[in-house]
Specification:
Blueprint: H1 15-23, E1 36-44, H2 48-58, E2 66-69, E3 85-87, H3 93-126, E4 137-140, H4 151-159, E5 166-169, H5 171-177, E6 186-189, E7 192-194, H6 197-211, E8 214-216, E9 221-227, E10 230-235, E11 239-247, E12 264-273, H7 277-283, E13 290-292, E14 299-303, E15 309-313, H8 332-345, E16 354-364, E17 371-375, E18 380-384, H9 393-406, H10 410-413, H11 430-450, H12 457-468
Parallel strand pairs: 1-2, 1-11, 2-8, 4-13, 11-18
Antiparallel strand pairs: 3-7, 4-6, 5-6, 9-10, 10-11, 12-15, 12-16, 13-14, 14-15, 17-18
Length: 475
């Protein structure tokens, strides 16, 4: 029988968001802003960053003095499309220590670890069924001709006094979690959880509305500017004057004045299988563990409550000039690449039907690390650059942004990376041309290693070019 065609991306919202909206009874979007109003804080963006910022502020101030402006619906962006991996920065600890010192790096890693349990506790307290499953994260080495790349990281963790956060798994241990012939040894992160990402975003929306936070959907902010001791957010239908503004727009910041030269945007795509409970049981993959491979263009995969596999990979193309368009949502070639990775890593599931596919943008800074800070004379606060790993750290970003407004958690605003700007990226069209060339080289390098081949010298050179120029994009 002929193999059924893969789903066409971009024809509908992600499966996550459709499932979450159906669980809510498919609510009508909230009314757009159509007049002028005032507030203590205006938040641009109704994804995780903006919603968590509003939550922490609402704990300490009148919630009715908080206004959220979202161009789509809350959770309509990457917060409703991502893989649902909640973990912190333990794997990045050696790099954090190199940049910020042992004390500073360890403080950052510990702060970023709080969302793993914190999100679960919050969901339990507020009756949000976001499928929070804190059962750990396994990164596997699936390169047949390459050794594992994490021994130095594990040693550094032990040297930093946190040896239990990461550990090497031998091949037989990996097979107990998921018995794929492609998997070799693995790196286990005990502090990690899966979520249904859109349910978390929509749950935050519900709780904030119940508290009295004002949320306007279908409201695109056209300009954010200082006005004396205030900030004005101008939209197509009205404006908000506030004491402080929070910009939580992530990839969309690549087109925003002041940030467009600090971000590169790339596409990440996901596919979703049909329900396969018997096949998952045969694999032994029944504990809800998160999995990924060791590609730079990472393949990440997890199971769902109804026994599907959601499988994604960062194989999409780069955007141009800060425009967030169909490159990030309609790339059928990227979906084919994701499916090829699925078949390579889980060859025993080659006959499984693929029911859905979708994509979204990820925002990457020159150091592949978030940029959080304040501008506009201390009135405008921002966070972006999560590099596709925002489900957990966005909660930390929300706490930091809220504290930049009211000063309630000075230990967070004192973390070493807060207020540090990332390197400038090249202007267009050099950025677009370079990003596309590097992305293609990284994919080809990963494909060669998957096949047990040594990548060509040209592919290796282009893949390393960003690092040679001082950026942490590429190997």
């Amino acid at each position: 029988m002929a193999t059924p065609p893969l789903p066409t991306p971009g024809l509908q919202r992600s499966w996550w968001l459709r499932e979450a909206l159906a669980a809510e009874g498919d609510p009508t979007p909230l009314p757009a802003l159509t007049s002028s109003t005032s507030a203590s804080v205006v938040i641009v963006g109704g994804g995780y960053t903006g919603l968590w910022s509003a939550w922490f502020l609402s704990e300490r101030m009148d919630p009715e003095q908080i206004v959220i402006l979202e161009q789509d619906i809350c959770g309509g962006g990457p917060s409703g499309r991502n893989g649902g991996f909640v973990h912190g920065w333990w794997e990045d600890l050696p790099d954090l220590i190199r940049r910020y010192g042992a004390e500073g790096g360890l403080a950052m890693a510990r702060a970023a670890d709080e969302p793993v349990a914190g999100i679960g506790a919050w969901c339990t307290e507020h009756g949000v069924d976001a499928w929070h499953t804190p059962n750990g994260y396994l990164r596997v080495n699936a390169f047949p001709g390459q050794g594992r790349d994490w021994d130095d990281t594990v040693a550094a963790m032990a040297g930093a006094g946190v040896p239990d956060e990461l550990r090497t798994m031998e091949p037989q241990e990996v097979q107990v979690i998921c018995s794929s012939p492609a998997f070799r040894d693995g790196l286990w992160m005990r502090s990690a959880a899966s979520i249904q990402p859109a349910r978390l975003a929509r749950g935050l929306r519900r709780v904030l509305l119940e508290r009295g936070v004002r949320i306007h959907e279908a409201t695109r902010v056209q300009e954010l500017k200082r006005a004396g001791a205030s900030v004005r957010a101008l939209t197509h239908g009205g404006e908000v004057t506030a004491d402080h503004a929070i910009l939580g727009i992530n990839a969309w910041a690549s087109g925003w004045p002041g940030f467009r030269h600090r971000l590169v945007t790339w596409g990440s795509y996901m596919i979703l299988t049909e329900p396969i409970p018997d096949r998952l049981e045969a694999l032994g993959w029944t504990g809800g563990e998160l999995l990924s491979d060791s590609r730079f263009t990472i393949s990440y995969f997890r199971t769902t409550r109804d026994h599907r596999i959601a499988f994604g990979a960062g194989v999409g193309a780069a955007g141009f000039g800060g425009r967030i368009g169909q490159t990030f949502t309609h790339d059928a070639r990227a979906v084919s690449r994701v499916h090829a990775n699925f078949r390579h890593l889980l060859p025993m599931l080659d006959d499984v039907r693929i029911d859905d596919a979708w994509g979204g943008p990820i925002d990457v800074t020159g150091r592949r690390f978030p940029e959080i800070g304040t501008d506009g004379g201390g009135r405008m606060h921002f966070a972006h650059g999560f590099a596709g790993n925002g489900a957990g750290p966005a909660r930390l970003a929300g706490r930091i942004l809220a504290s930049l407004v009211d000063g309630a958690e000075p230990e967070l605003t004192a973390l070493s990376f807060v207020g540090r700007r990332q390197p400038l990226v090249p202007p267009e069209p050099i950025r677009w041309i370079g990003a596309r060339a590097v992305r293609e080289a990284l994919i080809r390098q990963d494909d060669a290693l998957d096949a047990g081949r040594r990548p060509s010298w040209l592919v290796r050179f282009v893949a390393r070019l960003p690092r040679l120029l001082g950026y942490q994009i590429g190997h």
